[in-house]
Amino acid sequence: MATTIAFLGIGLMGEPMSANLVKAGFPVTVWNRSAAKADPVVKLGAKRAATPEAATSGANIIITMLENGPIVRDVLFEQGAAKGIRAGALVIDMSSIPPDYAREHAKRLKAERKADYLDAPVSGGTVGAAEASLAIMAGGESAVFERARSILEKMGRPTLVGPTGTGQLAKLCNQAIVGINIIAVAEALLLAAAGGADPAAVRKAITGGFADSKILQVHGQRMIERKFLPGGRSQVHLKDLNSVIDAANETKLDLPLSKATREIFKYLVDIGGGRYDQSAALLAIEHMNKPARVGAAPDILPKD
Amino acid sequence: MATTIAFLGIGLMGEPMSANLVKAGFPVTVWNRSAAKADPVVKLGAKRAATPEAATSGANIIITMLENGPIVRDVLFEQGAAKGIRAGALVIDMSSIPPDYAREHAKRLKAERKADYLDAPVSGGTVGAAEASLAIMAGGESAVFERARSILEKMGRPTLVGPTGTGQLAKLCNQAIVGINIIAVAEALLLAAAGGADPAAVRKAITGGFADSKILQVHGQRMIERKFLPGGRSQVHLKDLNSVIDAANETKLDLPLSKATREIFKYLVDIGGGRYDQSAALLAIEHMNKPARVGAAPDILPKD
Q1: A137: nearest Cα among B224, B198, B184, B187
Q2: How many beta carbons lie within 10 A of that of residue B21, not counting itself?
Q3: Residue B146 counted as domain residue
Q4: CA B150/CA B147 separation, integer angstroms
Q5: Is A264 in Cβ contact with B195 (below 8 Å)?
Q6: Are B5 and B59 contacting, i.e. CB atoms less than 8 angstroms apart?
Q7: Are residues A150 and A198 both part of a single domain?
Q8: Nearest to A161 among B166, B181, B201 (CB)
Q9: Closest approach of chain B CAs to the CA of A194, in angstroms?
Q10: Final residue in a domain of this structure, among B115, B133, B163
């Protein structure tokens, strides 16, 4: 049977991801809550469905790329997407949602629709989505992953990390490292500035050594320029860090830096930085240490 | 006047660094406490001095690469190195020592010997030293830095970050980021394992995304293999993290992750891991969370 894909959720990420599937030659039917966002991918050749059920009923592969766990659950089981899913179809949820949501969705789709399930959240942002270079962390059965592989490879680099839910867990591991490393860079640049060094020169000097990272390169530069336009919003990162701590609690782990980092992002949101880029964690560390500051330039903040 | 170099401290780092200066054609006189360690660089063409004073008295550039602040102070001012230093000579201290030590050495060398001073600690390890790709963080006057530049460039990539002492401060910033990021990777891999994912697959899946770093690549792999042979010893990293907190206290900064990371490295040293590689910070996080563990393989530990 030829592959036919339903893609639910055509936002900042879903649009370039679904576009890459269309360009690869797959027949793709898209659905989005605000239909207009799907215009570019429809122009590329995707079909538009008026409802989630209309999208899924013609497909044997269903991809969801939605905002959070409750929304995925709502679209699947309240707005009718599940009703259209045939026995033997494969649901690939590429949204970032808590692992226990993923496990429950897998169970219900198997019980109610006899469908397979793979959790496959991504890292790499809109640039990675456009370039089809996303890191894709997949959880599920090996045979199910193999069935999905050629599709996922059109959007990035998929890796099977374990059973259902562990793709989401790997995404949480990713977000923990990202959040902690952002605070590490913020603390180091503030220490450099307070001690009389030029933070921009320090960042440049240590790039390439053992302190080097994507975060030092990208978010470190944003901190130097005090340019806190997202990128990734801090309130979304706080949501992910809350899920990290929930997952740690479920497995009875005490993870001191993950916990402290969650508190710092909560502090940032509390002082009004929820809409700012994650690199604005620097503002939280500075706020705790007034009047210490990295550079004299004014903050560049989002307008809405 | 032609450049003549004295190089004091021919250890794991000093040997390849001084060798690169010899290969670049500079006349280099070396001194080391245990003379035999200088044999390879003497074979390459360096002269051997019997005492620190004998080394420095023939040189207009004096490079020190010693273990810590007290040892640098002892070699300079107690063992006679300073006595040999001429007016107008330049002392480049590439050791990693506290910023306040560096500032005092600069002051004394200027007052007692009319000599210039640059602090220029490095990051990149023995591989970076051998490949002349060290990140070199320099503190001092701009003209002094320019005088040193062509020599430093034979050992790596020098960047002037500010006045005297700020090279050492930049090194501390580097060590703070490295230490925090090691704990970040340890926490993430333990969370992955405890939640039923394959930690090796998770590490592979997130490499290349925003969580990527030198630490994830190098120390993350050591954690997966449970291979804790140094590399960099944890007790040395604890010493650096103590200096980070001292520098933060001097500038009245509260840096929560740096502080927590110092406590975790102290915990590791307390449970006997001081001689282990920094990646053994995983053992501290596991020890706090018994019986959670990353993988079933036995630990590979140093013998002495």
Answers
A1: B198
A2: 25
A3: yes
A4: 7
A5: no
A6: yes
A7: no
A8: B201
A9: 6
A10: B163
Residues B73 and B155 in one domain: yes
**Best mutation site among B206, B215, B262, B277 for testing chain A: the one with the most A CBs within 10 Å?**
B206
CATH classification at residue B179: 1.10.1040.10
**A251 CB-side CA count, 13 A:** 28
The catalytically annotated residue of B23, B171, B227, B290 is B171
Q: Which residues of A touch B261 (CB under 8 A)?
A: 257
* B274 shares a domain with B155: no
Tell me the residue range of the domain where B188 lies.
169-288
CA distance A54 to B33: 80
- What is the per-residue DSSP string for B163-189? STTHHHHHHHHHHHHHHHHHHHHHHHH
Whether A184 and A282 share a structural domain: yes
Q: How far apart are CA A169 and CA B50, in angstroms?
A: 60
Q: Give a yes or no: residue A297 inside a domain.
A: no
- A151 and A203 assigned to the same domain: no
Closest C-alpha to A171, from A108, A88, A101, A224: A101
Q: Give the 3-state secondary structure of residue B26.
A: coil
B204 as an active site residue: the answer is no
Nearest by CB to B258, which of A161, A187, A207?
A: A187
For residues B245 and B247, what is the distance between their CA atoms, to the nearest angstrom? 5
- Two tokens, residue A161: 């990390």
In this structure, are B140 and B271 located in the same domain? Answer: no
Cβ-Cβ pairs closer than 8 A, A with B, add up to 296
pTM for this model (two decimals): 0.94
Residue B12 domain flag: yes
> Do B213 and B284 fall within a single domain?
yes
Q: Is residue A122 part of a domain?
A: yes
Which of A181, A196, A205 faces B181 most closely, judged by CB atoms?
A181
Cβ contact, residue pair B177, A196, below 8 Å: no
Is residue B250 located within the same domain as residue B127? no
Are the Cβ atoms of B178 and A211 closer than 8 angstroms? yes
Q: Name the token pair of A288.
A: 């705790």
Tens place of pLDDT for every residue, chain A, 304 residues? 699 999 999 999 999 999 999 999 999 999 999 999 999 999 999 999 999 999 999 899 999 999 999 999 999 999 999 999 999 999 999 999 999 999 999 999 999 999 999 999 999 888 899 999 999 999 999 999 999 999 999 999 999 999 999 999 999 999 999 999 999 999 999 999 999 999 999 999 999 889 999 999 999 999 999 999 988 899 999 999 999 999 999 999 999 999 999 999 999 999 999 999 999 999 999 999 999 999 999 999 998 6
Pairing relationship of beta strands A28-31 and A61-64 according to DSSP bridges: unpaired
Domain count for chain A: 2
CATH of the domain at A106: 3.40.50.720
Interatomic CA distance for residues A137 and A167, integer angstroms: 5
